[in-house]
Amino acid sequence: MKALYIASTGMSAQERNVEVISNNIANMRTTGFKRQRAEFQDLLYQQVRRAGVETSDNGTMLPAGLEIGSGVRTVSTPRVMSQGAVQATERELDVAVRGEGFFMVELPDGTTGYTRDGSFSLDADGQLVNSTGYPIQPGINVPQDAQSISISPTGVVEILLDGDPAPVQLGQLQLARFVNKSGLSSLGDNLFAETAASGAPQIGVANTDGAGDLLQGFLEQANVNSVTEIADLIAAQRAYEMNARVVSGADQMLQATSQLR
After folding, report:
1. Of 63, 175, 180, 206, which shows the fewest CB atoms inside 10 Å?
2. Mind listing the pLDDT tens digit for each residue in 30-43?
3. Flagellar hook protein FlgE/F/G-like D1 domain: which residues (predicted)?
4. How far apart are the first and last CA of the chain?
């Protein structure tokens, strides 16, 4: 009985949906996290009678066909790249992007990773790094005698040295934009990688071309709405239960048929 297999695809799809929702909820406090959603497509159809075929010698046609579907599949889990709320941290090396841009970091293999997590620190050499220890690109090196660090909305990094009232400019933070942000590949550690679907990065300074401005002393929070996620979880659970009932109903029908035999 095909209903068993069709319902099983529904159960599998909703199981994947719950996995996506659970990952969103687990990352509610992850800096710069972007929620995902599961998207589905129906499977192939068996054409028992095609719409438009002639039903008599007079040329009359079948107004609607007879099609039997094969179920559903999870086709993608795109990220929702909407802006998360920014929260003050009162830490001078925390930076939030208010716009579409991504910070760039150099990965151990020499490639570039992209992140919305602006919780930066200094390593033992005074180099500006992300929370995993990867250097920010382009590189910023802060001397040990720096008294304070300021980062402007456009990404200009300046310091004050002891006994010198004039600020010293160290460099410029740059941001990357993508035509299709949802096409980025997730690497974990709050990092994304460029793909053919995302397009090549468009690199520029903050506050230009829609990249967004920078807020020193703030961090972007996850764009996960707990109420929405719980509502989606309940809907997924109910859909799974209904598919399970179809399996149970098909089993009872098969049992009745076997008893007749």
Report:
1. 63
2. 999 999 999 999 98
3. 96-158
4. 16
Helix (H, G, I), strand (E, B) or coil at 13: helix
Q: Which one-letter DSSP state was computed for residue 45?
A: E
* Residues facing 161 on adjacent strands: 146, 164
User: How far, CA to CA in Å, does 226 sit from each of 19, 34, 79, 251?
Assistant: 15, 13, 16, 37
- Contacts of residue 220, Cβ cutoff 8 Å, sequence gap at least 6: 31, 32, 83, 84, 85, 86, 96, 97, 98, 116, 117, 118
Rounded Cα distance between 22 and 3, Å, is: 28
Which one, of 20, 195, 172, lies nearest residue 114 by Cα? Answer: 195
C-beta separation of 202 from 176 below 8 A: yes
Residue 23 has pLDDT above 70, yes or no: yes
Query: Side chain identity at 170, as an amino acid letter?
Result: L
pTM given for the model: 0.84
The residue type at 4 = L
Gap between the Cα atoms of 177 and 101, Å rounded: 5
As to burial, measured by CB atoms within 10 angstroms (0-12 exposed, 13-18 middle, 19+ buried), residue 50 is: exposed
3-state secondary structure of 118: coil
Distance CA 67, CA 49 (A): 7
Do 137 and 105 meet the contact criterion of CB atoms below 8 Å apart? yes
**Every domain of the chain and the residues it spans:** 2-28+39-76+226-260, 86-220
Contact predicate 112/194, CB 8 Å: yes
Tokens at residue 82, please? Answer: 């909407």
